[in-house]
Recover the amino acids of this structure.
């Protein structure tokens, strides 16, 4: 069941989108990045997952010895909240997982978080703790997972994905990319295309005041990720570039190269949609919004929006509109 629409969180989301400015695009191969700029530049008040784990202030484990596929345990021993972003991949323990939605773990807190398995063929331990990967789940997979988790929230106030659908999508994408894995791990796709993905990271650098980006693949908008501060974007941009980059090397995803992306229309669409508000896992409130052409989610606190992710509904698939006819907002 959804809560009643909260005016404050909905207004916070609209205000956040209105505050963003589109910068000049840059690109590498078939991936184009439209920077999202902000006037905000304040000290970051939370730690990112990779930084906290590396510093020994946080750890991620299975739920007890037996484990649970859709759940993991996060221990934040730090003095600040811990930001874990939608789609971040966690490698190790009994099987690799991705996080189902963005979470802020309070300081000095142990929290159970919802996840999805991205390694169907393994259920055996390779270590007690997970290691954060240098990537998030590929963008088209994140889009599908977001739709599934939003449906779960609205129908039963849970945060579950369609695990079978995720495994099927990984298998199909792995076959297209020629990536094999004894355990059907999504990680194999990223490893198989590591040279290309690292080239995106090396070529596409953050701009001053950048807090996010709209991404396009062969002229078709693939999604948006944005944060509250430039420092957070700088830390997480490489992970997200590998996410969208993997889709850009998959020619079943994206446009035909002749479409013209319209990032301003994509941003405007988000400001016109109905927002559903749910209690967050951890700190803040979880916002969910869709408007026919888009699907999105955001985490907000009393300080404002922390992270927002938005994708074209149905995924960043090859558009069916012709060059002569004006298509939907994502063309």
């Amino acid at each position: 069941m959804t809560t009643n629409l909260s005016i404050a969180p909905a207004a916070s989301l609209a205000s956040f989108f209105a505050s963003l400015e589109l910068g000049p695009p840059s690109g590498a191969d078939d991936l184009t990045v439209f920077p999202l700029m902000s006037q905000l530049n304040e000290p970051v008040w939370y730690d990112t997952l990779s930084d906290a784990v590396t510093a020994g202030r946080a750890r991620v484990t299975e739920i007890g010895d037996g484990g649970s596929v859709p759940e993991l345990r996060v221990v934040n021993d730090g003095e600040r909240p811990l930001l874990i972003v939608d789609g971040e991949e966690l490698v190790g323990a009994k099987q690799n997982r991705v996080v189902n939605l963005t979470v802020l773990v309070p300081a000095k807190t142990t929290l159970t978080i919802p996840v999805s398995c991205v390694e169907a063929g393994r259920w055996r331990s390779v270590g007690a703790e997970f290691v954060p990967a240098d990537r998030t789940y590929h963008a088209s997979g994140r889009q599908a997972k977001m739709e599934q988790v939003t449906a779960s929230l609205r129908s039963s106030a849970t945060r579950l994905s369609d695990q079978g659908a995720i495994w099927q999508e990984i298998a199909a994408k792995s076959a297209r990319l020629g990536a094999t894995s004894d355990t059907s791990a999504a990680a194999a796709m990223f490893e198989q295309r590591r040279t290309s993905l690292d080239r995106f990271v090396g070529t596409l650098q953050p701009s001053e005041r950048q807090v996010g980006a709209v991404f396009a693949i062969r002229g078709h908008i693939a999604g948006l990720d944005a944060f509250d501060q430039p420092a957070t974007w700088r830390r997480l941009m490489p992970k997200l570039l590998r996410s969208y980059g993997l889709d850009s090397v998959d020619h079943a995803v994206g446009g035909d190269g002749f479409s013209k992306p319209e990032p301003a229309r994509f941003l405007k669409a988000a400001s016109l949609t109905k927002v559903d508000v749910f209690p967050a896992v951890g700190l803040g409130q979880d916002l969910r919004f869709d408007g026919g052409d888009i699907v999105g989610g955001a985490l907000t606190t009393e300080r404002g929006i922390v992270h927002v992710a938005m994708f074209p509904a149905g995924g960043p698939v090859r558009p069916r509109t012709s060059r002569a006819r004006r298509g939907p907002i994502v063309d």
About this structure: Confidence is low (pLDDT under 50) at residues 1-7, 318-331.
